[in-house]
Write a structure and sequence with these properties.
Elements (H helix, E strand, L loop, with lengths): L8 E5 L6 E3 L10 E6 L5 E4 L4 E2 L5 E3 L15 E6 L17 H23 L15 H24 L1 H29 L7 H27 L9 E4 L10 E3 L5 E2 L2 H4 L1 H8 L8 H11 L6 E3 L2 E3 L9 E3 L4 E3 L29 E5 L5 E7 L2 E8 L17 E4 L4 E4 L13 E5 L7 H13 L17 E6 L5 E5 L3 E8 L1 E4 L10 E7 L8 E3 L5 E5 L1 H4 L3 E8 L5
Antiparallel strand pairs: 1-7, 2-6, 3-4, 3-7, 5-6, 8-20, 9-20, 10-12, 11-12, 13-14, 15-16, 16-17, 18-19, 21-22, 22-23, 23-28, 24-27, 25-28, 26-27
């Protein structure tokens, strides 16, 4: 026969149905076929039974029906390989007749063996052609692999120190490790004759080094994904208020307190200690909240950190008009009008159509200031200020009106836009990897915070705990439990609307003495699932504290 096909093996994928597999490569003998099955995990096993080759040598059945085994399932593969014996069985006699068929069969067998050797060599790791024979030693091979391993470790170490480059380095290291594993597996057969004694030890050593490189690369990738590439202390805006969208950053719009911040964020805590102008005392923080409803500074105390609470303090520059604009509500800048106006005896003066002043002299009045038909300031004039004297107010800058009993400072507002984008301020607390043990310990401590010991015979699912809470600068608060139980309270008078509605009128509702401390009683009336009416003391003129408890309503 002629041997025109260079294929010496076939690999078929199982599908849970097929039992008959084509053998389309030439065979010197039906006994020369070897059969292997490979599991989804990559484990390869040579079969000695449960298969049968037809008489023509063109089709193999596996598994046979008589074996009782099911067809090869998906994820498994079947490999058919020709393995021609390395023998020469032709005996030519001197002066004997030369049979062309006999000679051709010998040539065919040699060709088949050469094809099989070529297939094995193509799966082997080969030295360059110019390599000297004396250098073909296993020790030299191992040193080369160790050098590659050291390069991988160095690359992963550099990746940890440079978070932005770590992800790419980690991906490269993982690909290199996978390629090394594949190369080791494919070269095992051809290398056995040269490193029979030390081959197993070399492979184990390589596996250890490759695993170490993979671990280093995975660590680098882990920290790279949790880095935002900003400088510690850098403030930036985000369209998301979620911590998962702002890794490594802390919110500047909650005013929350972080326990053990010196351990959780050591670099950021040290940075704040070196920038004393950004910090204040707890008393100063509380005073700012009481007066302004916000505080732009941090509080450092015993390793704990209280974050700023920004509501109106942060402003963004309007580069077109050169005027700062408020953050709340979305405002546009007011043009810098140089012309002013004059207020005289409480009567209106519409100079430049900027301002209108109404009100009677000596009584209550209102100053309404408009620019281009848009109201930019509205301020009351009380009895104490009598009437404003003559003065100028500039629409964009703001100025003062002097009265007979004091000074009234006017700050013009900005005209509102029809729409705006809400941006949330965040500060970068860390921008590089921290030791895994430190991060894990901090996460574990945070997970334990607020937990309680579960009594014997109970599970965590049996324990009720707070899942949501709220407290604003006016003292209004609520606590929502896992079970849906809601507790809330505040201070006020008249109609009170619950921050969290109930499924029915609250089980408990108490009104305390009014907050001025003069002992006036207070009482609640008209209690519903959504609110009640609170009668304060002194003929319903004073506010009182209240508290309500009950099962929350749906979608609370």
């Amino acid at each position: 026969m002629t041997v025109s096909m260079q294929v010496s093996k076939r690999i078929y994928a199982g599908n849970g149905v097929t039992r008959r597999w084509e053998v389309d490569f030439p065979l010197a003998s039906p006994q020369d076929v070897r059969v292997y099955v490979t599991s989804p995990a990559g484990a390869e096993t040579e079969l000695a039974e449960d298969f049968e080759l037809n008489a023509a040598g063109t089709e193999l059945e596996y598994p046979t029906l008589s074996s009782g085994k099911p067809p090869l399932a998906e994820g498994w593969s079947l490999t058919l390989e020709r393995h021609t014996p390395l023998t020469q069985e032709i005996d030519l006699l001197r002066q004997g007749e030369l049979d062309a068929e006999v000679l051709e069969s010998g040539y065919d067998k040699l060709t088949l063996m050469v094809q099989e050797l070529n297939e094995k060599v193509s799966r082997s790791i080969k030295y360059p052609v110019s390599t000297i024979v004396d250098n073909l030693e296993t020790d030299s091979f191992l040193r080369n692999i160790l050098s590659i391993k050291q390069d991988a470790l160095n690359a992963s170490s550099a990746a940890v120190s440079s978070a932005q480059q770590a992800q790419a380095s980690a991906s490269t290291a993982q690909q290199t490790a996978q390629s090394a594993l594949a190369a080791i597996a494919s070269s095992k057969d051809s290398a056995q004759s040269d490193i029979a004694a030390s081959g197993a030890a070399v492979e184990n050593t390589l596996q250890t080094y490759v695993s170490a490189a993979q671990n280093e690369a995975e660590t680098a990738r882990y920290y790279a994904e949790r880095s935002i590439g900003k400088t510690v202390g850098e403030v930036y805006y985000s369209q998301s208020s979620a911590e998962t969208d702002n890794p490594g950053a802390l919110p500047l719009f909650t005013g929350e307190t972080i326990a053990s911040a010196d351990t959780l964020y050591p670099d950021f805590y040290a940075w704040l200690q070196n920038h004393s102008g950004l910090t204040c005392t707890a008393a100063e923080y509380a005073a700012a909240l009481s007066m302004y409803g916000e505080c732009p500074k941090y509080v450092l105390a015993d390793g704990n950190l209280r974050l700023p609470l920004f509501k109106h303090s942060i402003k963004a520059a309007n580069t077109e008009d050169g005027i700062t604009q408020g953050a709340a509500g979305g405002f546009i800048g007011v043009p810098d009008y140089s012309a002013g106006y004059t207020i005289t005896s409480g009567t209106a003066s519409t100079e430049d159509a900027l301002v209108t002043c109404t009100g009677s002299p000596g009584g209550y009045g209102t100053i309404n200031m408009s620019v281009d038909g848009k109201e930019v300031y509205r301020g009351g004039v009380s009895e104490n200020t009598a009437r404003p004297r003559a003065g100028n107010i500039y629409a964009a800058k703001g100025s003062m009106i002097t009265s007979s009993s004091g000074t009234l400072t006017v700050y013009p507002l900005k005209a509102r836009q029809s729409g705006y984008v809400t941006l949330y301020p965040w500060v970068c607390a860390y921008n590089a990897a921290v030791p895994a043990s430190t991060a894990q310990a901090a996460q574990f401590q945070a997970a334990l915070s607020g937990k309680v010991d579960v009594p014997s015979g109970k599970t965590q699912a049996d324990v009720d705990f707070v899942v949501e809470r709220y407290l604003d600068a006016d003292g209004n608060w609520y606590r929502k439990y896992k079970s849906g139980w809601v507790e809330q309270g505040g201070c006020g008078k008249g109609t009170i609307t619950f921050l969290k509605p109930y499924s029915a009128p609250p089980n408990v509702l108490t009104g305390s003495a009014n907050k001025t401390g003069d002992g006036w009683p207070a009482r609640a009336n008209e209690v519903t699932a959504t609110g009640f009416y609170l009668y304060g003391g002194n003929q319903d003129t004073l506010s009182a504290y209240w508290e309500a408890k009950g099962q929350g309503g749906e979608n609370v």
